[in-house]
Design brief:
heterodimer; A: about 220 residues; yeast vps74-n-term truncation variant fold; two-stranded antiparallel ribbon; two-stranded antiparallel sheet; B: about 110 residues; alpha/beta; Transcription Regulator spoIIAA; 5-stranded mixed beta sheet; 3 helices; 5 strands
Chain lengths: ~220, ~110
């Protein structure tokens, strides 16, 4: 099974071109930080309450990236509020996307293609080798949102992360999202990590708007 | 029972009342989840009495959701009852009442 981080990164790939969707380049890194923390929660290594993180088991998971993050948390080298951790990870772990893409290549789901634009600029694309996991993730997202039943925990997490960073635009039409806006909001509010990812993204865009307006 | 959570069941007026006492966190949520799934699968009506729960974390909330999911799959009723003040605050922040039924008192 893919990690949530891998699933979110997979959802950033345009299946037609292999290019990464570039329309949410600022918010996706926050969602990736949230996904990495959810992965540690799903692995039973951390727990959260309304705002703080507790390490409940510092035993390595076997996933190198998760274990680096877990060691930082257990060693006191990381912020211990969820919002602080998401902000810190956004600033200090620019490698989350690249590491997850490399893992997806290792899993045989995508391949890396390097080309040059204008003979100089290197362009990376990630064509799908196996499109089923991406299709399945999209189907789970659609079902979680369009149904009224309680989704599995993991799907609630995936909805909240993709909603927070705009990736749902590549899963559901604008009309579908508008019609189910309340449901998306509900599923995005249940988890502490999602609430903090959303508020961090909101604060980022407020900062950017202030910067643009010169206030 | 372990040292920080106590779970017991009472059958009354067609309801299975799951009494939960103590902390529901990352260390105890698995135990509660298993108990709730078993109760929700075996009984047509389950009420989880949270009046003696003094702390609930995100893992604890997930255990309630998984119990409710099991009941839903079996087409059984599942309701969370009498949350303590501290637990109610967490429910309110998470807007859990929009995902699963929560009520002030026990159904019977």
């Amino acid at each position: 099974m893919l990690t949530l981080l891998e699933e979110v990164v997979l959802l950033t790939i345009d299946p037609r071109t292999g290019c990464l969707h570039g329309d949410q380049q600022f918010s996706v890194p926050y969602a990736l930080a949230g996904a990495a923390l959810f992965d540690l929660a799903l692995a039973g290594r951390v727990d959260t309450d309304v705002d703080s993180i507790q390490v409940i088991d510092s035993t390595p998971t076997g996933n190198a990236l998760q274990d680096e993050l877990l060691a930082e948390l257990a060693g006191g080298g990381a912020a211990m509020t969820v919002r602080g951790w998401v902000e810190q990870t956004f600033r200090t772990r620019k490698d989350l996307e690249d590491r997850a893409l490399a893992q997806l290549v290792d899993h045989g789901l995508i391949r890396l293609e390097k080309t040059r634009r204008l003979w100089v600029i290197e362009v990376q694309r990630f064509p799908l080798v196996d499109g089923k996991p991406l299709q399945l993730a999209k189907e789970r997202l659609a079902q979680a949102i369009l149904d009224d039943t309680i989704p599995p925990t993991r799907d609630i997490m995936l909805v909240s992360l993709t909603a927070s960073c705009g990736l749902l635009n590549h899963v559901l039409t604008r009309d579908q999202q508008d019609a189910r806006a309340e449901r998306i909001e509900t599923l995005s509010t249940v988890e502490t990590i999602s609430r903090n990812v959303s508020s961090a993204i909101g604060a980022l865009y407020e900062d950017m708007a202030r910067g643009l307006s010169g206030v | 029972m372990n040292d920080i959570i106590d779970i017991s069941e009472t059958l009354r007026d067609g309801w299975c009342i799951v009494n939960v006492k103590g902390r529901v966190d990352g260390l105890t949520a698995d135990v509660l989840e298993k108990a709730l799934i078993a109760a929700a699968t075996a009984n047509p009506q389950v009420a989880v009495d949270c009046s003696a729960v003094d702390y609930i974390s995100s893992a604890g909330l997930r255990s309630l959701l998984e119990g409710a999911r099991a009941a839903q799959g079996a087409k059984h009723r599942f309701v969370v009852c009498s949350p303590s003040l501290r637990v109610k605050q967490v429910f309110d922040i998470s807007r859990m009442h929009l995902v699963l039924p929560i009520q002030e008192g026990l159904p019977c």
